Amino acid sequence: MQGMKPFNCDEMLSVLKGANSILLCTHVAPDGDAIGSTLAMGLALKKLGKQVVFSCADPIPARFHFLSGAKEFVQADALAERQFDAALAIDAAELARIGDCAGAFEKAPVTLQIDHHGTNPSYAMINYVDGDAAASGCLILRCMDALGIPLTPEIAQCIYCGISTDTGNFCFDNTDEETFICAARLMEAGLPLNETARKMHLLREEPHVRLLGRALNTLKIFADGKCAWMCLTREDFLMAQAGPEHTENIVNYARDLPGIEMAFLGTEQENGSTKFSLRAQPPRDVAAVAKKFQGGGHKLASGCRIDLPLLAACAAVEKEMLLQIEENQ
Asked: Which residues face 278 on adjacent strands?
């Protein structure tokens, strides 16, 4: 049995060791891997005596506030006058995904990134990208090992948040041997599994449940039962008293219907565009669908935005999914 893969980026390790102040950025609309991995890296760097600032263009959803450091995240306006020795982007597949924090990131004398998206174009000065890794959380643990930083229960909780999110709580096809090695090490470090798993995967806020109901009412099955989609309007969010963070995992209710191979959730944005979350079952590839609309991600989980009204945009994605089905029977 093989152990953890090595963190083979000595140049990044040298920068992290030498820097005194480090800006940590993650992607807009942050999910569990973005938040957990960024917090884990920051908590680890603090163990080395580094001054760390956590940043994200969007607010951190309340359900993640139980993680150590989660309430320390700042948005772009708080970075305007700050100077850092280095800036590290985590779990952001492209520079645009950092949103308004990109300005502060690019202003740093050295830019770094750690990511597990195969579509990543290596936009930083120093890049550690492994598209085969199940989650950025795995890469953070590799980096900690290389830096000689031991796991603590707080850091273990953050890494679990990242890995369990991006593996569908260890159910997705990207779950591999290293994933379970990571999980075992988190348990050895004192991960409060029951408490963390309940907060991560079982508890549901009321706005999420109300929004889910409205999404389910729009469910459409197509491609002879192989594909499905749902959509949410701005009015749906208002009626459910919900925010963008309350859409997390709603798309999975379409993907997990018997016979469904690909699914998407379209959400109407304030500027009139439409945001999409796309999901698939093996061997389908929704990254190929997202790429047609300048989006990206993983084969089984991707996203994109289209500058069209909600129903027109959903029709465009439906058409592309149909093409994917026809070309890959």
From this structure: 264, 302
Q: Is 324 exposed, middle or buried (0-12, 13-18, 19+ CB in 10 A)?
A: buried
Residue type, 18: G
Pairing state of beta strands 301-306 and 296-297? antiparallel
Residue count (the chain): 329
Quote the CA–CA distance of 201 and 262 in Å, as a whole number. 22
Which pair of tokens denotes residue 82? 């700050």
Write out pLDDT tens, residues 53-103: 999 999 998 889 999 999 999 999 999 889 999 999 999 999 999 999 999
Strand partners, 266: 231, 276
Tell me what pLDDT residue 1 has.
Answer: 46
The count of C-alpha atoms lying within 13 angstroms of the C-alpha of 117, restricted to the half-sphere facing its C-beta, is 25
Tokens of 232: 């949410």
Q: Is 118 within 8 Å of 174 (Cβ atoms)?
A: no
Q: Strand 274-280 vs strand 262-268: parallel, antiparallel, or unpaired?
A: antiparallel
In the DSSP assignment, the letter for residue 277 is E
The region, left, alpha or beta by phi > 0 then psi within -120 to 50, assigned to residue 199 is alpha
Check if the beta carbon of residue 45 is closer than 8 Å to that of residue 72.
no
Tell me how many degrees the CA angle 220-226-228 measures, rounded to the nearest 5: 25
Contacting residues for 257 by C-beta, under 8 A, at least 6 apart: 221, 228, 263
The owner of tokens 């120093």 is 126
Cβ(22)–Cβ(52) below 8 Å:
yes
Question: Taking a C-beta distance cutoff of 8 angstroms, is the pair 149, 48 a contact?
Answer: yes
- C-alpha 58/C-alpha 210 separation (Å) is 22
- What does the alpha-carbon distance between residue 266 and residue 313 come to, in Å, rounded to a whole number? 8
- Of the chain, the percentage scoring pLDDT greater than 90 comes to 88
Distance CA 150, CA 144 (A): 7
Q: How far apart are CA 324 and CA 280, in angstroms?
A: 12
CA torsion through residues 96, 99, 100, 103, sign = negative
Helix (H) or strand (E) holding 67: none
